[in-house]
Amino acid sequence: MPLPRLDPTRQQALSVSIATGAYGLSFGALSVAAGLDVWQTMALSLLVFSGGSQFAFVGVLGAGGTAAAAVATSTFLGIRNGFYGVALAEFMRPLRGLRLAWGAQVTIDESTAVALAQPHDRPDARRVGFWWTGVGVFVLWNAITVLGAVLGQQIGDPADWGLDAAAAAAFLGLVWPRLASRRAQAVAAISAVVALALTPLLPAGVPILVAALVGVAAGWQAAPVEEVPE
C-alpha cells in the first residue's frame, strides 16, 4: 500500500527538519568533549533548543571559558527567538496553556521561516508549516543529539576526528542561510572581525558576546524575518 503523499508545506517542513536535526550529531559529540555528560547534553537540547545558542555554549566551555561566559553568550544569542513571536502572532492566535508553552518552545529560526514562506492569505498553511517544522526539528534534534553524545564518549580526543573545528562549521551551516540580505552579510562580517580581533585579548566566550552586541547595535535584530530563507 503506497504511503500518502504529503502536501508541499509538509514536505518542506520535513526536509528542513531532517537537514537541521542532522546537526545534532556534531552538537552531541562536541558537548561531551567540552565536559558535559550525556544527561546534561540531553537537558541542554531539550530545554534550550536553539542550535546557535547550544553550539555557542559548548564552544565557550570547550575553549576554556567560564560557565558564566557560556551562559551569557548562549542566552544573548537565543533572545532573537522571542522577536519571531511578533511575526507569528497574526496567524498563531489564540494559543493558551500547554499549547502556548509548546509553541514558544518550538519557535525557532526554521519553524518561523517555513511558516512565513507560505502564502499570506493561507493562515492554515502557515500554522501547518510552523508546527510541522518546529515539532519535527525538536524530535530529530534531540534524538540525534543523544546519538552524538553517546558516540562522543567513545571517540576520545575530538581533535583526532576533526571535531575541534566542527562547532564553528556547524554554527556556520546554521547561520549561512539567514544571510540573504546585504545588510545581514555586512553585519555578520563586522561581527566576525570584532570577534577575531578580541580573541587574543579577552577570556573565552567574551569576544563572541561582544560581537553579538555589535550585531544588535548595527541593527541585525531589526532585519525583517521574511528575509530569512530556508
UniProtKB/TrEMBL annotation:
<keyword id="KW-1003">Cell membrane</keyword>
<feature type="transmembrane region" description="Helical">
    <location>
        <begin position="161"/>
        <end position="180"/>
    </location>
</feature>
<dbReference type="Pfam" id="PF03591">
    <property type="entry name" value="AzlC"/>
</dbReference>
<keyword id="KW-1133">Transmembrane helix</keyword>
<keyword id="KW-0472">Membrane</keyword>
<dbReference type="InterPro" id="IPR011606">
    <property type="entry name" value="Brnchd-chn_aa_trnsp_permease"/>
</dbReference>
<feature type="transmembrane region" description="Helical">
    <location>
        <begin position="12"/>
        <end position="35"/>
    </location>
</feature>
<keyword id="KW-0813">Transport</keyword>
<feature type="transmembrane region" description="Helical">
    <location>
        <begin position="130"/>
        <end position="155"/>
    </location>
</feature>
<comment type="similarity">
    <text>Belongs to the AzlC family.</text>
</comment>
<feature type="transmembrane region" description="Helical">
    <location>
        <begin position="55"/>
        <end position="79"/>
    </location>
</feature>
<keyword id="KW-0812">Transmembrane</keyword>
<feature type="transmembrane region" description="Helical">
    <location>
        <begin position="187"/>
        <end position="220"/>
    </location>
</feature>
<protein>
    <submittedName>
        <fullName>AzlC family ABC transporter permease</fullName>
    </submittedName>
</protein>
